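Working notes for the structural subgroup meeting. M.R. asked for a predicted model of this chain before we commit to crystallization trials. I am recording the input and output together here so anyone reviewing the notebook later can reproduce the run.

Input as submitted:
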Amino acid sequence: MNDIKDRMLGCLYGQAIGDALGLGSEFMDKDEVRKNYPAGLTNYDHIIQDAHRRRWKKGAWTDDTDMMLCILSAYENGKFNLHKVSQNFKDWFNGEPMGIGGHTYKVLCMSDYVEQPELCSKVWWDLSRHQSAANGALMRTSVVGLAKNGIEEQAEAICRLTHYDPRCIGSCVIATSIIHNLVWLNQSLSYDDIKEIGLRYDDRILEWVDAAYTNLDISALDLDEQYSIGYTLRTLSATLWCYWHASSFEEGLFAVVNEGGDADTNAAIACAILGAKFGYSLIPPYYVENLHNRDIYNQKITSFINQVANEKA
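Returned structure, recorded in C-alpha cell form:
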C-alpha cells in the first residue's frame, strides 16, 4: 500500500507541477520559448511575467488543476458524485476563474447547467457541427484513474459533463486507464492495449497514438501548431509520448513545456501519468516544495488518497 500511495501522490503532484511549469510557455511557439528561455524552461522562477502569466504567482497551477480538484472533492463512497462534480464546476465558474477554455466557458455559462449538464454539453457539441474536441476534459481527468473501480464509466461520464465528442471521451478513458493500471496493478498498458481502447471511441484517435509511439523526438508532434494547440488528440499524443519515451519525471516535464503550445494542459496530464509511473519519491523535491499553495493542495490530495486507500476493494 505504501507503493500505491506513492504512485497516487506522484500522479496528483505531477498534475499540479506540470500545470504550474507549463504556464511559463503556454501559447508560445517553439521560437518564442527559445527566445524567452534560452537555457530552457526548467523551474518556476524562470517564468516570464508578461500580461498573461503575471496573473498567477510563480509556481501556481491554473484551471487544469482547479477543475481536477472540483472532481476530487466530489468523491463519495467509492465513486465520484456526478451531480456534485457539476455543482463544483459551476461554483468554480461563478468565482470568475482565470484561464478557462472557450469550450468549457460556453457550457458552464448555461443557466441550467447544474440540472442538465450532459444536455448542455451536447448542445454546444451539436452547435459546433460535431467539430469541437477540445482538451478541457483530458486536462482534469487524472484523479478519476485513482479510484478503485468503474474507471472507464466514470471517465466517460465526467468527460461528457462538458465535452461530448467521442475523441474527448476516448482521450480521457485512455489516460485514466493508464493511470489506474500503473497505480493499482503496477502494470503498463501496451501500445496494442491503448489502440484497442481508442478504437472503441473514434478511429481518428489511432493516428495520434501512432505518432506518439513511433516518433523518438517530441518536436515531430508539432505541439505548438497555431490552429489546433487545444485539440484533445494533440494533448493525448504529447501525453503518450512522455509515457513511452521519457526515462524520468523531469525529462518528460522539460520535453513538454519547452515545446510551447497548450503547454500547461499538455504537461498537466503528461506529468500526472509520469508521476503515477515513477512515483512521488522520484519527483525532484524542488517542484513540490515550491508549488504555490502547496500546503492547501497537499491537505486536499492526501485526504483523498487516504480515503481511497482505506476503502474495501
